[in-house]
Inverse folding.
């Protein structure tokens, strides 16, 4: 008998990984982009692609360099702040591309705003073709529009390219009913439905991103980026972290 949890996400053919900008920063110094951290992420992505044949796309944030929402809160025009944040994501995307290519993993950076000298323009069919040829595709500049988060960009790109699952990398090992960093007794969920996130306002992804995944029946797996080989394990289909899906899929993962 097969494991129902493995049936939900076993060996996904195409996945999209959402990395926050903070994932690129150093935990032990003030480095905005820590080369060792980026190298580790790149090696795990290369392993998932090479060993399991998984087609991998990535959406990166830019919060380690510039956070548009914070700048807007301090008085900057929101649209201007968001465009500056899009430029920050491009810097992270180029850093990840370099690390992947040093790991002998062919990579393309595709931008939602024109940066022809450093990245290809985002064209859905071209992105899918890159994936089919075994290249890792890194999406930068969010959706190309202010007022939309990179979480929403991740959900949008995942739906557009036909990804089977959206992998949301975080600093904790799943979704909790309270902040596990400050609440010792916080309870971790193995599975949730989309409506649980929206109803309980669990701060995992913004509502627009969750709603887009729900409307298109796209499962989300929230997992700890810092766990040993977690990117490769999730890409392989192991039940790591918290699965967020519709009633049937969420109920199957015990």
């Amino acid at each position: 008998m097969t494991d129902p949890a493995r049936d939900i996400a076993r060996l996904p053919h195409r996945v999209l990984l959402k990395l926050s900008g903070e994932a690129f920063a150093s935990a032990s110094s003030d480095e905005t982009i820590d080369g060792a951290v980026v190298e580790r992420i790149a090696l795990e992505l290369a392993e998932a692609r090479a060993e399991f044949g998984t087609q991998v796309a990535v959406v990166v944030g830019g919060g380690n360099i510039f956070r548009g929402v914070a700048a807007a809160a301090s008085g900057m025009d929101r649209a201007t702040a968001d465009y500056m944040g899009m430029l920050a994501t491009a810097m992270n995307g180029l850093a990840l591309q370099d690390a992947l290519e040093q790991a002998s993993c062919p990579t393309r950076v595709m931008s939602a705003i024109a940066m022809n000298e450093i990245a290809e323009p985002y064209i859905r069919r071209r992105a899918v073709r890159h994936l089919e040829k075994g290249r890792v595709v890194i999406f930068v500049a969010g959706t190309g529009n202010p007022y939309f988060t990179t979480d929403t960009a991740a959900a949008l790109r995942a739906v557009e390219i036909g990804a089977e699952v959206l992998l949301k990398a975080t600093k904790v090992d799943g979704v909790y009913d309270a902040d596990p960093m400050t609440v010792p007794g916080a309870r971790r969920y193995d599975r949730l439905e989309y409506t649980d996130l929206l109803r309980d306002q669990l701060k995992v992804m913004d509502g627009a991103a969750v709603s887009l995944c729900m409307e298109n029946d796209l499962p989300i797996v929230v997992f700890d980026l810092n766990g040993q080989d977690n990117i490769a394990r999730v890409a392989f289909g192991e039940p790591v972290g918290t699965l967020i899906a519709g009633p049937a899929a969420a109920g199957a993962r015990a």
Notes: The first strand starts at residue 14 and ends at 19. The radius of gyration is 17 Å. The CA atoms of residues 21 and 62 lie 4 Å apart.
